[in-house]
Design a protein that fits this description.
Strand order of the largest sheet: 1-2-3-5-4
Number of strands: 8
Distance between the termini: 33 Å
Largest sheet: 5 strands, antiparallel
Strand content: 5-15%
Radius of gyration: 23 Å
């Protein structure tokens, strides 16, 4: 039984677009927000599932930057509904119509990055970041994020009411989205704000059409703001670019051949899954045979395709390492979650190591990683 009296006339509808119905409920000095489905969508089981999965995802995060979700109730006059904290404030869209200083915009922007990182830190995405889904609180101008769209195994999604802030890969669905899709939306939002000059190069990188050119997550965006602006490398590094790329590739190969996932990653996997890990000694041998030796790497400066091919071999070996424990039995939801965590760690580490490569080569590697992972996912047997 819900703590709210759903027979009461205290519910006041809050205007909204899309499939969701929002109602404010005041009980004494306590206010709640009820999120349900609009009448024309209440009988659609996939949308009812959305509400339950959203509730589960948000309660798991325990983020101070999200409203508190109290309960999900089925037997209400509005159908299935989430009862959540009501946040007194206004949307960022409304906030930007008010008169605020550059310093105040700077403070809000940084709070927004912290809020987004509270989601990214748990290997999750917001997926629907836009000014109307960012609440600036009445007290302290703090930031709260609403309408989280977590990824679901059955790929059910509510329709989006706007695509202006969506990354290109979200619009055309060419590759699976990751935290860099949220980074794109963040950059598009920051463009609307009056911010100090040091934001300019950061915002530009956030809004790059190629996702491999963006920051990996909100934490990297914030770190970049406090770093020195990038030096114009158009002349200085043309000569050094190929050398740097070769050194980076060699470092990646040697790291993976020697350590596999590394002790910290292996510990994390052992802690979060009951599946046995493959033998790291045999895996290192597999990786070593799949990757060109360092002598061949040294010649790659004059042949960029050799660099890409070498990294592709590393990717293949590492993804085989990740997926191998899950190929002998059918895979459930928990196992799929563990695979996603391990793949993201592998990808994030790899792309950071390859920061010295050209954008064209990184894009080729990025596409190969996405395709290889998709093929491995297709080979799994699901429960």
């Amino acid at each position: 039984m819900s703590s709210l009296d759903f027979t009461s006339t205290k519910f006041v509808e809050v205007p909204s677009k899309g499939i969701f119905l929002f109602l404010k409920y005041i009980d004494g000095d306590k206010a709640y927000m009820v999120k349900a489905l609009k009448p024309e969508h209440r009988d659609r089981p996939q949308y009812r599932t959305l509400l339950k999965k959203e509730f589960d995802a948000v309660t798991k995060l325990h983020s101070p930057y999200l409203p508190t979700y109290y309960e999900v109730v089925d037997d209400t006059p509005f159908g299935r509904a989430i009862v959540e904290e009501y946040i007194a404030g206004r949307s960022l869209a409304d906030y930007l119509t008010e008169s605020h200083s550059v310093e105040e915009h700077d403070a809000v922007a940084r709070k927004l990055m912290d809020a987004l990182q509270s989601i990214h830190a748990h290997f999750m995405l917001h997926r629907n970041l836009k000014p109307s889904n960012i609440i600036i609180t009445a007290q302290g101008d703090n930031v709260k994020l609403i309408d989280l769209r977590p990824a679901f195994a059955d790929e059910i999604q509510a329709p989006f009411t706007t695509t202006r802030f969506q990354a290109p890969e979200q619009k055309d669905e060419t590759v699976g989205v990751d935290t860099r899709s949220d980074v794109y939306a963040l950059g598009m939002i920051l463009k609307l704000m009056t911010l100090p000059d040091n934001f300019q190069h950061v915002v530009a990188q956030c809004c790059s059409l190629g996702r491999s050119d963006r920051f990996m997550d909100a934490e990297e965006v914030k770190r970049a703001l406090d770093a020195r602006p990038p030096v114009d490398r158009s002349k200085l590094y043309k000569v050094l670019g190929a050398v740097v790329a070769v050194v980076v590739v060699i470092g990646v190969v040697q790291y993976f051949v020697k350590n596999g996932f590394g002790s910290s990653d292996t510990a994390d996997m052992q802690e979060t899954t009951s599946y046995a890990l493959p033998d790291t000694t045999s895996q290192a041998a597999t990786t070593q045979t799949a990757v060109a030796d360092t002598t061949t790497m040294a010649a790659a400066a004059a042949a960029p395709s050799a660099q890409v091919d070498s990294v592709k071999n590393v990717i293949a070996a590492q993804l085989e390492y990740i997926y191998r424990p899950y190929t002998t039995d059918s895979v459930g939801q928990h196992a799929r979650a563990q695979i996603r965590v391990q793949v993201k760690r592998c990808y994030r580490r790899l792309m950071r190591q390859l920061s010295g490569m050209s954008a064209e080569d990184r894009d080729a590697i990025d596409a190969y990683f996405a395709k290889y992972r998709k093929n491995k996912d297709a080979q799994l047997t699901y429960k």
